[in-house]
Known about the structure:
By secondary structure, the protein is mostly helical. 75% of the residues lie in helices and 0% in strands. Helix 4 runs parallel beside helix 14 (263-280), helix 6 (99-111) runs antiparallel to helix 7 and helix 6 (99-111) runs antiparallel to helix 11 (182-202). The relative contact order is 0.15. The model is unreliable at 211-218 (pLDDT under 50).
Amino acid sequence: MTGIEIATLMVGLLIILVSLGVHIALCLIAASMAGVMLITGNPMVPVRMLQSTAFQFLRDYIFAVIPLFILMGDLVGRCGAAEDMFKAVNRGLRRIPGRLAVATVIGNAIFATVTGVSVAAAAAFSRFAYPAMRNAGYQQQFAVGAIAGSAVLGMLIPPSVLMIVWGILAEQSIGQLFLAGIGPGLLLTTLLCLYIIISVKRNPSLAPDTAPAMPAAATPAFVERARSNAQLPMSPKEWLGAGGIGVLMMLVLGGIWGGLFTPTEAAAIGALGALLLALLKGMTVKQIFGVFYDTAKITAPLLVLLIAAQMYSRMLSMGGMTAAVQGLVTGLDLGPLEVMLIMVVIWLLLGMIIDSVSIMLLTVPIFWPVANMLGFDPIAFAIVGILVIECGLLTPPFGMLLFSVKSALPGQGVSISIIVKGSLPYVGLILVTAFLVWNFPQIATWIPRNLM
C-alpha cells in the first residue's frame, strides 16, 4: 500500500475506535503507531517516534501554561471570589431587565479572564447564580440557559485552553491568539446580554426579578438571598474577592498585552496571585492542596492527548494525507466559502459526539494546511474554528456544559432537556459571532496586529 492509502486506512480506524467508545488518546496513539509501522515497515520506528515526541513535547516551556491557567481559575472559583464578583456586577445592573441573567453573562466574561476552562465556570455559576435567579422568580429554563450559554465565554476570552491547544497544533503564537479572542469575546458577551434584555422586555415573566421583602428578624439564609438580590451592601471580604479578580485580570491580560510577560510567565504570575487571593479569602492549606490535586487530574490527561495528537499529525504528514486533502480541494474546484462550510458542518457534527479538545486534535492537523493553502487569515480562521467547536459544549448528547450544570444542581429538578432548550438560543448567537468574525476578520485581528 502507498503512504496515502495507509494514512486513509488509519483515519478510518481512528473513526471506528472513537465510535466504539475507546478513549480518544488511545485511538490516536494506536492509529498513529500502526500507521507509522506500516509506512516504514519497521516496528521500532513508531516506538522511537513516540519517545521523542513525548520528550520534546513535555520539555517545551510553553506547555507549562496549561496547568498554571487551570490552577488559577480553580483557585479563584473555589475560594468564593467568583461569587463575590457576580454580586458586585449584579449591584451595578439594578435597572436592567433580567439583571441577574445579565450579571451571569458579564460575570462569566470577567471570570473567563482568569480561567481557561468553561466547565469550571458552569459549575461555579450554577452553585450561586441559579439559586439567586430562582429566588428572584426566574423561569427555570431561562436561568439554566443563561448559565450554560454564557459559560462558553471561558473558552473564547483569554486565557483559553482551546486557544492553547489550537496554538500548539497549528504552531501559532498563543499570545496572538489570546489577544485575538478579546474582540470576539466582547462581541459575543454583548450579543448574549442583548438577547436576555430583549427576551425579558418581550416576556417579563421570564425574569421578574422579584426580591423578597426584608423581615424584621432575617435568618442567615434570607440575608444571603437578599445580598444576592443587591438588597444588602457587600461585605469587605466580598469586595476583596471581586477586586482580586480585577487585579488578576489586569496582571494577566495587561502583562501579555503590554509585552511584559510571555503567556507562560503571565500564567505563573496569575497562579501566584490566585493563591494569595485564596489565602486572603480563608482557604485552608488542605483545600489548596486539593485544588492542586484536581488541577493535576485535569492536566495530565490533556497533556497525554496532546502528545497523541502530535503523533497523529506526524503520521498524516508521513503518509501524505495533508497533501492529498489539499489536492482534493484543488481538484474539486471548491471556493473558500464552500470549504469553510464543510469544515463548520464537520465541527458541528463532531461536537455532538466528542469533546472540544478531541475535535481539535482530530481536525486541526488536516484543516489547518488547507486553510493556509486557500489563503484564510490564520488568526480569524482560528477564532472561527474555536467558536464553532464551542457549540459542541452545548449540543447533546455529549455537551459537557449541559452535564456540568446538571451535576452542579442536584435535587433541583433540572433535566438535561431543560438545559438544552434554554441553551439553544446561545448556540445560535455563537454561530452568529463566528459568521461576523469570518466576514469581518478585523474583529479578531485588529488587537493582535496593532498592539503587539
